[in-house]
Write a structure and sequence with these properties.
The complex is a heterodimer.
Chain A (H helix, E strand, L loop, with lengths): L2 H4 L3 H15 L5 H31 L6 E10 L2 E9 L1 H24 L6 H20 L3 H19 L6 H32 L14 H9 L8 H16 L8 H4 L5 H10 L1 H11 L1 H4 L13 H22 L4 H23 L1 H28 L12 H4 L1 H15 L6 H14 L6 H25 L5 H5 L14 H16 L10 H7 L13 H26 L15 H5 L1 H8 L4 H73 L6 H24 L1
Antiparallel strand pairs in A: 1-2
Helix pairs in contact in A: 2-3, 2-5, 3-4, 3-5, 4-5, 4-11, 4-16, 4-22, 5-6, 6-7, 7-9, 9-12, 9-14, 11-12, 11-16, 12-15, 12-16, 14-15, 14-20, 14-26, 15-16, 15-19, 15-20, 16-18, 16-19, 16-22, 16-23, 18-20, 18-22, 19-20, 19-24, 20-24
Chain B lengths: L5 H7 L1 H19 L6 H25 L4 E3 L4 E3 L1 H20 L9 H19 L4 H20 L5 H32 L4 H13 L6 H18 L7 H8 L2 H8 L1 H17 L6 E3 L2 E3 L2 H21 L4 H22 L2 H32 L10 H4 L1 H15 L5 H16 L6 H26 L14 H19 L2 H14 L2
Antiparallel strand pairs in B: 1-2, 3-4
Helix pairs in contact in B: 2-3, 2-5, 3-4, 3-5, 4-5, 4-12, 4-15, 5-6, 5-12, 6-7, 7-8, 7-9, 7-10, 9-13, 10-11, 10-14, 11-15, 12-15, 13-14, 13-19, 14-15, 14-18, 14-19, 15-17, 15-18, 15-20, 15-21, 17-19, 17-20, 18-20
Chain lengths: 696, 502
């Protein structure tokens, strides 16, 4: 079983190699590309299963669960730069989730991208994307993690801009890349600082790693500006990177735009890979985030964790509010993702790794489900994404509707039977007991209410009432047919995901907190008495009530009377809009964040660009021109010397050599008499030389 | 008279005896049984028997006792002589194979017999420390080569070249014999070591360089300078290389070179020990070293410069051979163990490359009618494999890494620099390197014709005989291999030189 640790690198390597192989394939080798990508992902999934089983076995036998393999990469100066990979419960769980959800999305993509011309390219990028994310998961070095992280960024750029001929997609890809880069800049600074302080970027290295006690103690002991310890500073810088990838306010702006990519990409980004990377990073460096002088209490709210909590709580509400007022089916889900990511960050901040990771896992499944469901809807409606032009799909796409409803209820946190309930409840419970402030709890609770509301709204728009697609068809340019259920290759992943969206909650109920125990490396036991805790019950009850309230409000606004099928469906004001048009407008424009950035940062940047341009044109260019003219003059002089003196001399030398050859060739007259005579000359010359030399 | 026991003699000379018997067998078979067969079959049978004989001799050498000395140095055996003899036999086998599809003569049995007898001569030459045996085996070798040169009886050039070679060789042999007789008079012995001790004694008596000895040195240098084609004793070489049938020319250029250089080195270093003198630019002391230094410098200059103006591939190879003789003489000027190892490595790899080049020239010559360089125009389109092999051989001769020729030159020059204290021989090395640069020019001229120039309009693909192609590719492969991994060969050479204690 130990072999799996040594060979863990295969898990990311296989999809990356598959991507490389697909990249070499021809455009028409569609089956080859798809089977290679899916095959590599399947293999990775089985390897992950082995790894998971190995960790389970270790924990069951009470052995050290952290297994690392480090190796030397290259030497600079006297130091070796070392990289490595690791296997611990966190890695194992993440690997399993990423490979499984990824695999389902891959399979789904066969159906969704069936009509796509660049099918092979898509699978190449998709495999690279998944491989990079798996690299992030197994990395035991912040540097290796960062490299894979950047690879994730790159592939997200490639995939969001997959339809690059659409200017909006191209712009969205650029936006995603640049915005996450801003976070990555801080991440890189944090990494450099960490290296400067500890001299290593390996997480675990037999006591010498940067997440181990020695290094953390030294980091905590140092105080920098504003009274922050070095560990806090580094943790906050790295959190900036995580915030960029995970779409936390104020770096969330790229996420809704990223919906321009194909829907499987959105599903992959939102469920398994990209945004999860940020949350995972915080979970990975949790020892650093929570490092403080005492080191005794595990859940002390350090400054870094407080920041994470507040950012998460604000993001949770922020995203949920905006999601209320959008019409694009994928954008609603995007803002919902932002909101849920906020929950995860908050969970990490208030409750530790297990709480945040639990929500990450459950969310991965139901959000993948929702996105694939949305994809199925879009596919069925021939590319239509506006929920105002849908409706009535419940009967036309029954499987999609059923699975979508499961996903929606899981996202809302419908009590008891859906995974989202348990994970969200764990977060709210942890927030409730947070020692610093109760505000995040209330923000989270408000977010839960909004979540139930906007998801109900979406369900009614899309699936309720009668179809408005035909009515809108002559108003828009979409060539439409009757919406139809998608192929089995798309619905089967939906069904699998739906079952997980329901059942996965069972691994983290208060009665059997398996995930928590697994991540902490402790044994678990089933005891229902945990429910007897009055506070826990109160939180559960109140969150359930909020969910019901949200569902009820949604029904009140959107479900009571079926929406009309009119040609002007787009122009019909929304139910909430009728009530509060101003607030709705603000929300519909996403709080004008993009506009704010355009007005401030972008304008500043453009202004600075003009200044630089001027400097470049007149100051630096002038200097460069001067130098260039100088160099030209020198070159001219050099040319003169070269042609007139050196070359001429060389040519003369060569001609001398040739002439010498010709003259010497005259010796070969063909007369054997003269040859023999010359031997005589040689004899005399050499003898005279020797004898004369001997005398002298 | 000293009573000679036949058993040890036979034992020691068994490889040579095997070869001589094989030669007779070949002749007998050819004349008695195969007279009526097609020439191709006769040649193939003769080559097969001769190759078997060579292989037998190699096996015998591998199994032979490590050290032996018969009759006070008349015949010696040590790992070094074994190594050189094996190399000679391998070269002979390769030449036999190359010549399988040659058509220049009806006298197949005689041709193979001569090749084998020449090889016997070379092997005796290599395995002797006695002036008399050296001279006799040298004559055996030379006479065989004269006849080989003349064997293409339909060609006037062949006869002319043979006559020139013979006259030139006869005169050199006379000089050599004269020198040897002076040495005998000087030392009352024909054994090299005893000659050396006599020289040593004369030094103790106070005289600087005995005039008799000086004349002996000069005549010996002339005699062997003729064999290795060093300037100014090279005049026969271009004519012979051009006129002789291709296998004969290849044999003269490769095997004969190896043997002559080895015995030349041994004769000078062992026999004339104590009369070295010095060729350091700051302090020239009379002796055989400055004489050789002059010959070397002249050979490098003349060989490389005249090669530039040649219009025929064989003559070009002849002048290139003269230039290479000059480089190899540098190793003798250095006269250290290290330089002997470098010399042997150099001459072996040179023999491989030049043999390969001759093989290619022979094929081209046969298909196009002459060896003029213009016949190589566009060869790469007509015979790509052959052209690539020629590319390797010529670049190896020019000393381009990573081919064997580069490492040969490198070790040679390095050993020369290491031999002289305070870099006294630097002038020779600088000259050698400068002349190597010149040599690159004329080798590239040939390659330019092969790869850049366009073929004549009516040119067809050149059909290369299977066995020739195989041998040529094998040689090219060996040149590349020995260049990439020189220690494969150099290790043996160094070990053998160390054990033999020269």
């Amino acid at each position: 079983m130990t072999g799996i640790v040594q060979n863990l690198w295969l898990v990311p390597a296989l999809p990356i190699l598959a991507a490389g192989a697909i990249a070499l394939a021809k455009q028409r080798n569609r089956i080859f590309a798809a089977s290679l990508a899916i095959g590599s992902m399947t293999l990775s999934f089985f390897l992950s299963l082995c790894a998971f089983a190995h960790v389970l076995w270790l924990s069951h036998h009470g052995e050290q669960e952290l297994q690392v393999v480090n190796f030397r990469w290259f030497q600079f100066g006297n130091e070796w730069l070392r990289l490595g990979w690791m296997l611990n419960p966190l890695t194992a769980v993440m690997l399993l989730m990423v490979t499984f959800v990824g695999l389902l999305i891959f399979i789904y993509s066969i159906g969704y991208m069936a009509h796509e011309e660049n099918f092979t390219r898509f699978f190449c990028f998709l495999a690279l994307f998944a491989g990079a994310m798996l690299g992030v998961v197994i990395a035991n070095s912040l540097l290796l993690l960062f490299m894979c992280w950047e690879l994730v960024g790159l592939t997200s750029y490639l995939l969001i801009g997959f339809w690059y001929h659409n200017p909006k997609a191209a712009a969205a890809a650029k936006k995603a890349f640049i915005v996450t880069r801003i976070g990555d800049l801080a991440f890189f600074l944090g990494m450099a600082w960490l290296y400067a302080q500890t001299g290593t970027l390996l997480f675990y290295d037999n006591g010498a790693g940067c997440l181990e006690h020695t290094a953390l103690a030294s980091l905590v002991a140092q105080t920098t500006i504003l009274g922050l310890t070095a560990s806090t500073g580094i943790a906050l810088l790295i959190f900036c990177g995580a915030a960029g990838k995970s779409g936390q306010v104020p770096l969330h702006v790229w996420l809704p735009d990223a919906m321009e990519g194909p829907t499987p990409v959105s599903a992959l980004i939102h469920a398994a890979t990209m945004v999860a990377a940020g949350v995972f990073l915080i979970a990975r460096i949790y020892p650093l985030m929570s490092a403080h002088t005492g080191m005794a209490l595990p859940l002390t709210p350090t400054v870094a964790l407080q920041v994470v909590t507040w950012v998460g709580a604000i993001t949770a509400v922020f995203g949920a509010m905006i999601a209320v007022a959008h019409y694009d089916i994928k954008r609603i889900l995007a803002y919902s993702t932002i909101s849920q990511l906020g929950y995860m960050m908050m969970g990490l901040g208030v409750g530790g790794v297990a709480v945040g990771m639990f929500h990450l896992l459950t969310h991965a499944f139901f959000k993948a489900l929702l996105f694939l469901g949305a994809g199925s809807v879009i596919h069925g409606c021939s590319g239509e994404q506006d929920i105002r032009r849908m409706g009535g799909l419940r009967r036309l796409m029954p499987i999609t509707f059923a699975t979508y409803a499961v996903g929606m209820l899981a996202l809302c946190g419908f009590p008891l039977f859906f995974s989202g309930f348990w994970s969200k409840d764990a977060i709210l419970h942890a927030a409730h007991t947070w020692s610093v402030s109760q505000v995040p709890f209330y923000l989270g609770a408000f977010g839960a209410l909004l979540t139930a509301f906007y998801m109900t709204r979406q369900i009614y728009y899309v699936f309720g009432g009668t179809s408005r697609l035909a009515g809108a068809s002559h108003a828009s340019s979409h060539a439409s047919t009757t919406p139809h259920e998608s192929a089995a290759v798309m619905t089967i992943p939906l069904l699998i995901l739906a079952s997980f969206a329901m059942l996965l909650g069972l691994i983290g109920t208060p009665a059997w907190p398996w995930l928590q125990a697994f991540l902490d490396g402790q044994p678990t036991a089933l005891h229902f008495s945990a429910f007897a805790n009055a506070e826990l019950l109160a939180v559960m009850l109140s969150s359930s009530l909020l969910v019901f309230l949200g569902l009820g409000l949604g029904w009140w606004f959107y479900g009571r009377k079926p929406m009309e099928d009119s040609p002007k469906a787009d122009a019909m004001p929304d139910a909430v809009e009728q009530l509060q048009p101003r607030i709705f407008a603000v929300l519909n424009h996403s709080f004008y964040v993009d506009e704010l950035y355009a007005a401030t940062l972008l304008r500043l940047n453009a202004g600075w660009g003009h200044v630089c341009d001027w400097l470049d044109r007149w100051v630096w260019n002038g200097a460069v021109q001067t130098v260039a003219h100088l160099a030209l003059g020198l070159a001219w002089a050099d040319d003169f010397v070269d042609t007139r003196i050196v070359n001429a001399g060389f040519d003369e030398g060569c001609q001398g050599v040739s002439r010498g050859g010709k003259i010497l060739a005259l010796l070969q007259g063909g007369q054997v008499q003269s040859y023999l005579r010359r031997i005589g000359f040689a004899l005399i010359a050499l003898a005279v030389f020797l004898l004369w030399g001997a005398k002298g | 008279m000293i009573a000679i026991s036949n058993a040890p003699l036979l034992q020691l000379a068994l490889p040579e005896v095997i070869l001589a018997c094989t030669a007779l067998l070949v002749l007998a078979m050819d004349i008695l049984f195969l007279r009526t067969c097609r020439k191709g079959i006769r040649l193939a049978a003769a080559v097969a028997i001769a190759s078997a004989g060579c292989v037998g001799a190699i096996l015998r050498l591998l199994l032979a006792p490590e050290q032996a000395n018969f009759l006070n140095g008349a015949l010696v055996a040590n790992p070094l002589t074994h190594l050189v003899q094996i190399a000679l036999l391998v070269l002979t086998i390769l030449i036999l194979w190359i010549s399988v599809d040659s058509t220049f003569t009806e006298h197949v049995g005689e041709f193979v017999l001569l090749l084998l007898i020449a090889t016997v001569g070379m092997m005796f030459l290599v395995g002797s420390q006695d002036l008399l045996v050296i001279f006799i085996s040298l004559e055996l070798l030379s006479l065989s080569l004269y006849i080989l040169t003349a064997l293409d009886k339909r060609s006037a050039r062949s006869s002319e070249a043979a006559l020139k070679y013979f006259l030139f060789g006869g005169m050199s042999a006379a000089f050599l014999l004269f020198g040897f007789s002076l040495l005998y008079g000087f030392s009352h012995s024909t054994n090299l070591a005893e000659i050396a001790s006599a020289i040593h004694c004369s030094h103790l008596n106070g005289s600087q360089l005995n005039p008799l000895l000086a004349i002996a040195i000069v005549t010996t240098v002339i005699g062997f300078g003729f064999k290795v084609a060093a300037a100014p004793f090279h005049f026969w070489a271009p004519d012979v290389y051009e006129g002789a049938p291709a296998p004969g020319a290849a044999f003269i250029a490769s095997g004969s070179k190896v043997a002559s250089f080895f015995i030349f080195f041994q004769l000078m270093v062992v026999g004339f020990a104590g009369a070295e003198g010095s060729a350091a630019w700051s302090r020239i002391v009379p002796g055989w070293v400055p004489v050789l230094a002059m010959v070397a410098a002249l050979s490098m200059l003349l060989g490389n410069l005249v090669a530039i103006v040649q219009r025929s591939a064989r003559r070009l190879l002849a002048y290139s051979a003269i230039a290479h003789a000059g480089y190899m003489l540098l190793a003798m000027v250095a006269h250290t163990q290290q330089s002997l190892a470098a010399l042997l490595y150099y001459v072996a790899t040179y023999a491989l490359a030049t043999l390969g080049a001759f093989g290619v020239v022979a094929v081209v010559e046969k298909r196009t009618g002459s060896d003029a360089l213009s016949n190589f125009d566009g060869l790469s389109r007509r015979a790509p494999v052959l052209s690539f092999c020629l590319f390797i051989f010529l670049l190896s001769l020019a000393g381009i890494p990573p081919l064997a020729g580069f490492f040969g030159k490198f070790y040679l020059f390095a050993s020369v620099l290491a031999a002289s204290s305070s870099l006294g021989l630097l002038w020779l090395v600088v000259l050698a390197i400068a002349m190597s640069a010149v040599s690159l020019y004329y080798y590239l001229q040939v390659l330019k014709r092969v790869y850049v120039a366009s073929a004549p309009v009516d040119a067809e693909k050149i059909q290369v005989p299977m066995l020739s192609q195989l041998v040529i590719v094998l040689l090219a492969w060996a040149v590349v291999l020995l260049g990439c991994a020189p220690y494969l060969l150099l290790r043996w050479v160094l070990e053998a030189v160390r054990v033999s204690g020269l």
